[in-house]
Amino acid sequence: MRLAVAGGTGAVGRHVVAAAEARGHDVLTLTRHDGHDLETGTRLAAALAGVDAVVDVASVVTLSGRRAREFFRNVTGNLLRAERAAGVAHHVALSVVGIDGVDDAHYAGKLAQEALLADSPVPVTIQRVTQFHEFAAQVAATATYGPVTIVPKALIRPVAAREVGARLVELAEGTPVGGRARDLVGPRDERLADLVRRLHAVEGVRRGVLEVRFPGPFGRSLATGATRGGADAARGRITFDEWLRSGDRAAVRAPREGAGARE
Ligand SMILES: NC(=O)c1ccc[n+]([C@@H]2O[C@H](COP(=O)([O-])OP(=O)(O)OC[C@H]3O[C@@H](n4cnc5c(N)ncnc54)[C@H](OP(=O)(O)O)[C@@H]3O)[C@@H](O)[C@H]2O)c1
């Protein structure tokens, strides 16, 4: 099938592309790097001609809820309009486990995205997942101030972006669910601060890690492990320590703008 991957160069996008190519699909990536700004959506319908399914893993790094909502609404709205015009049969979107009722900027954007998808003119599947193993590296890259990395107190169940990418391709190949598929979470519970310390150790970084409890419902949900997903979620198999020793760690790209944790 012909598959378009919005955000196909990102932490998870590159794994979606690799999984799709390994399964013999014809892949088109939609990123600004490839000349497609999904926030403006210019020439998008023409680009989607002949595409069977779109996997949307585009993202923005911002601490502003307004900006996050604007980004995800613009990108999702433009994609869905262009997909409808081009006759695309399936839109698969990636979201985050545990975002309901939590006052985080990125989560506000994801909820706005899910709300648009609820009225989609194109059949949809939404896959919620927990933080990626790559998230520890994203935090280390954005929340480091001189000799210290500041990490929110968080009990999480991280999953390998590689497994998320494979899952999204499987979903794109299948019949649209018409809402949320079964959540996907990682194999083990981990403290985010420990992950960053282990990452620093493997990379030979001599930097302290300061664990800080974030205020409000967001801080509480992170600290208490409310973002780990329920017992009925599907479980990934790759542990953080296996990921640390893999080539996937070295390939992590730092986000472009902003600072601070996103999920
Ligand atoms: N990171 C996590 O731990 C985590 C956990 C659960 C779910 N998620 C979800 O996974 C998705 C992807 O996250 P990620 O961490 O993989 O993101 P990322 O590494 O920051 O990659 C973002 C991708 O979006 C593209 N992009 C950004 N702005 C764009 C624009 N205006 N037009 C076209 N493309 C644009 C980027 O390419 P260009 O810069 O070239 O445009 C890049 O390919 C998000 O929806 C996020 O909510 C992430």
UniProtKB/TrEMBL annotation:
**Which InterPro entries does the protein's record reference?**
Epimerase_deHydtase, NAD(P)-bd_dom_sf
Q: Where is the NAD-dependent epimerase/dehydratase domain?
A: 5-95
List the Pfam families.
Epimerase
Entries under Gene3D superfamilies matching the protein: NAD(P)-binding Rossmann-like Domain (3.40.50.720)
Name of the protein this chain belongs to: SDR family oxidoreductase
- Organism for this UniProt entry: Agromyces indicus
